[in-house]
């Protein structure tokens, strides 16, 4: 099997990565791409307005959790210099390479697989991850990583590198806008094959120039989570 097939084979059904109180039927797919005309009618740089937009969608669809965003090109990142390329649009980072799950602050984060804490860090740039944890997963001769961004400060206060985390363990929680990079509360979940020697951080948004690499190195998280 290739790497994608190996990851896909690790789970056979819906595998939660947030509080198990939310079942698969509670999830709603949302579109935050630049093609979504409804986003052009609101100030998406405002956390409060953006949260109201998500809440209204959930209520309209009798859902509790919103998800989506893998390989989605977004205008949201234009608000932060962290993603900006002044002279070359091909270098501007605006293509999302993880899966976002929008749920209330303090929502528990669950390990979808056995693993161990590889690294953690508070990435404090405006629009960045805020508190972040990376888990390492070793399956015989196959190693890969999962990244959890936009966490609470408490999530990393007692972290220990090398600490074992079992599937289903609650090992972190979602942060609020004051610590999570100034976003409506959500989890950025990402699969990473080659961590490129990084620790506590890894790009979650790609430029057009580098998207071919990141598409291969960061496969669709739904291979593992099977939300849809």
Terminal CA distance reads 22 Å
Counted by DSSP, the helix tally is 5
- Taking all Cα atoms into account, the compactness measure Rg is 17 Å
User: Order of strands across the biggest sheet?
Assistant: 1-2-5-12-9-8-7-10
Number of domains: 1
Average pLDDT rating: 92
Strand segment tally: 13
Overall form: globular
Unreliable segments of 5+ consecutive residues? none
Helix content percent band: 10-25%
H/E topology pattern: HEHEEEEEEEEHEEEEHH
> What is the percentage of strand-forming residues?
25-35%
State the gist of this model:
With 228 residues, the protein is an alpha+beta fold.
Secondary structure layout plus pairing:
Layout (H helix, E strand, L loop, with lengths): L2 H6 L18 E3 L17 H14 L4 E4 L3 E2 L19 E4 L2 E4 L5 E3 L4 E9 L6 E10 L2 E8 L4 H4 L6 E2 L4 E4 L12 E7 L12 E3 L3 H7 L4 H4 L3
Parallel strand pairs: 1-2
Antiparallel strand pairs: 2-5, 3-4, 4-13, 5-12, 6-11, 7-8, 7-10, 8-9, 9-12
Structure description:
The chain is built from five helices and 13 strands. It has a single domain, classed as Glucose Permease (Domain IIA), CATH 2.70.70.10. The protein has 228 residues and is an alpha+beta fold. The model has no long low-confidence stretch (mean pLDDT 92). Strands 1-2-5-12-9-8-7-10 form an eight-stranded mixed sheet, with no helix packed on it. Strand 7 (115-123) and strand 8 (130-139) form a beta hairpin. The radius of gyration is 17 Å and the shape is globular. It has helices at 3-8, 47-60, 154-157, 211-217, 222-225; strands at residues 27-29, 65-68, 72-73, 93-96, 99-102, 108-110, 115-123, 130-139, 142-149, 164-165, 170-173, 186-192, 205-207.
